[in-house]
Specification:
It is a single chain. By secondary structure, the protein is α/β, with parallel strands linked by helices. It is 35% helix and 20% strand. The longest helix has 17 residues, at 240-256. The chain binds iron/sulfur cluster (SF4).
Length: 266
Amino acid sequence: MKVRPSSQRPILEPCSLKGFAYQLDPYIGCEHLCSYCYALNRAKTDWTNEILIHQDLANQLERELSALEPQRIYMGWNTDPYQPLERKHQQTRQALELLSQRGFSVSILTKSDLVVRDIDLLLRMPEPSVGFSIAFQDEQVRQRFEATSPPNERRIAALRRLKGASIRTYTLICPVMPFITDVAALIELVAPHVDTIWIYALRMEAEGDSNWQNVKGILDRHFPGLTEQYRQIAFSAAHPYWAQLRRELEKIQRRSRLDLRIELRW
Ligand code: SF4
């Protein structure tokens, strides 16, 4: 994997998620290469070949933070801040050091247990939170759709460590892959370790998009009976599959009183 420095864009960017004005991506591109990744459709570089890092992240971020009041920043919506390169390049750790020194806090979304390395910095922030996304209960199936991300057991162990350190934790069951993701089983797996569980549908926009081409290729090879059903379900929020899943999840919610956030519409 080539790593190329880039100084072409701000480090903090506007965030569309409720409760956050800014998001921060320490890397441009993501080595995890999940087949269904939405960000792949907008990628301007080939993530299988090169990842861009911010040149002089510390100084640039310091300048950008100086114009802002302390607040919570979201990390991990477009790329994983704890992808394998972080072990060596420590862009995320540098950003967290600065944010903690300036009184800012973060909500981090990742698939990697490397995040536990930074518990010391998170504990210096007001009300940080860390979430793991997870989409498959079966390890072999997970490997087909997610090329390099860590297995569930490492994600769960990390959630346990974070919760044990009194950091707020959450899970995104995302994306729900119709007839493959067992949402109830994943809720049961993560519930003891998180405060909130978000559930997001697999959502495709155009047949030509990279993520649909990737997922379709895997379905054709390994789940040939499902491709056509996915074409119906993943391109339509109004498909009865999602309404049925919502009813089942609402039943689980009533029975368990878990904090489930069911985000199956788009
Ligand atoms: S970890 Fe997230 S950003 Fe990275 S490839 Fe997977 S879905 Fe995309």
